[in-house]
Amino acid sequence: MRIDVLTSNIHYCSAKQLDIIINATYTYGKPNEQTILLQTENLCLKNGSIKHSISNGIFPCQYRYNLPLNFYIRTTITDTSTNTKQQANSNNIVLTSRPYILSHSHTINYYRINYANYIVIDVKDFKQKPVSNVPLNVKIISQYGFEIQSYKISNDSSLKSDSNGLAIVTFSLTDSIGRLRVLATTNDTRFNHADQAILNFILFPFDKNEKAAIFIADKKKLFFQAGDQFQSKIDYYSEQIKPDSLFWIASSKGYIFHNEKIETSNQITLNITNQMVPNVRILVLAITNSEEVISDSILIHVEQKDCGVKIELDSNENVTIFEPGAEIKFRFHGNKNDIVAMNAIDESVYILRNKSAKLRFQKMMQTYDIGNGPGGGKNSLHIIDAAGFKVLQKKLNKEKYRNKRSMDDNCLLYNHLCCRMALLSARKSCDERYKIVKKYAKKPDCHTTFLQCCRCRWEDGLQTSTVHRPETSKSKPNYEFNHPMNSDERIESQIDEKNTRYDFRDSWLFDLILLNGR
C-alpha cells in the first residue's frame, strides 16, 4: 500500500490552521478505504483520500525566538481486513513566523565621516539560499532619534535584493554623531505585515583619534566570477601621507598572492581567477607623516566560472562501464603546471548523503581564511588584524621567550599538520605518498614527518575510518525506521549479510596530478 501525506513546505504562525491531504492506494491502484490514526484523532478514508486541518494552537509560535523549526506529519493507517498497520511521514515542514531570514554579515559595522558607507542586507530562505527580487525598507536612525538619508545603488524604482540576495544602500556623514541604529524590513506584498522579516543592528563610529585616513572607495559589488575585474579608487588626504608609502595586498585561503605599491593614479585593479575561490581579502596600507600606519580592507567573494580543466577517458572506445580490476586511463586538458585534485565519489554514497562534493570542498576552503568578518574595523590596527595580518613594531612587541617543549613527543608529532595528512585513508603506499608530499609540500620537514607517521599508523592504531561489519557491530542498523519492532526483526532475518554493504566512506580515490603539457 502506498501512502502520500501532502502538506505545504512552509507553515506560518499567522495562519489559522495547517491543511493536509492523505492519499492511500494499494500497489495495483485500488483506493484504500480504511482507518487512519492522526495524532489522537481517528479518521476514516473514503475513496482512498481524506482532507484534514490541524489547529495552529498546537504549534509553539509563542516562542518566536526559537523559530524556525522543522517538523513533519506522521500517519498510521490500519487495514481492518488484515489488522495490519503501516506508517508514512510527510516531507519536512518549516514552522516560522517570517518568510525570509535577514542578516548583515556583509556589512562593515563601523562608519567613517566624509566617505561613502555601505549597508548590505542579505536575504535568504530557510535553506540558506539567496532570494532575489525581495522588496526591502532600510532606515538609519541616529541615537538622537532623527533619520539619516540613505541612497540605493541600483537603478530600480525601489530597493530589492539582487541575484545574490543582497540589497545595498549607502550614506555619508560629515560629522561623527555616535552610534547609528539600522532597521531593515521586507516589504513583500504577498505576506501580511506581521509576517515581514525584521533586522536590527548598530553601526559604530570610526576612531576619532585617527586624523589621517585611507579608504577603498568602491564597495558596492561584493560577488565576482572568475574572469571579472575588481577596480576601485583609493581615497586619502595627500598632504598627510608620505610619498611612495601606499601599498595594497591581496590574500586568499591564507596566502598572499599579490602585493603592489599604489602609484599616482590612486587606482587598484585585480583580475579575478578560479584560484581565488571562495574569497579574496584586499588590504590597503599607508604611512603618515607622523609615522603612523593607516589602513582599509574589504572581503570580496569569488564564484568559480569554469574549472579550466577537462577530463576524458583515454580510450578509443566509447566505454563507461568497466569490470572490477580493469585499468582506467584518464586524459586531462588544462594549463601546464596546474595541479589537479582528482576525487572519486561512490554513487551510492552520493545518493545516500545527497551532498555535492564540490560544495563540501568549497566550504572547507573557507576555513583557511586568515581574516575575520567583511573588512573594516574600529581603527587601522583593528582593520589590519581583522584582515589576518599583524604590524610588528619594536615598541609594541616585547621580547618573547621560547616555550618549553613537551616531553610527550608523540603528542607533538600527531598534532603536526603533515602527520595528520598521513592518517588519512589512501590506497597508495606510504612511500608513494611520501614522494608526492616531498615534491609539493612547502615546509622542508613536512615529508619526513609524514613518512614517520604513515609507517607507524597501524602499529599505534591511528586509523581514522573504520568499517563496522555485522559480526563486530554492537547493534544492528535499523533498516526500516517506520516499522514496528517485530517487522524489523523479520526484515533483518532476510538480509544476506555476505552481500550486504556496510562501507560507505566518502571517497575511495584521491590523487594529485601535475599537468606537464604532455
TrEMBL record:
It comes from the Eukaryota. Residues 467-486 are annotated as: Disordered. It holds the Pfam family MG4. Residues 213-352 form the Alpha-2-macroglobulin bait region domain. InterPro entries: A2M/Complement_sys (IPR050473), A2M_N_BRD (IPR011625), Ig-like_fold (IPR013783), MG4 (IPR040839). Transmembrane segments: none annotated. This is Alpha-2-macroglobulin bait region domain-containing protein. It comes from Euroglyphus maynei.
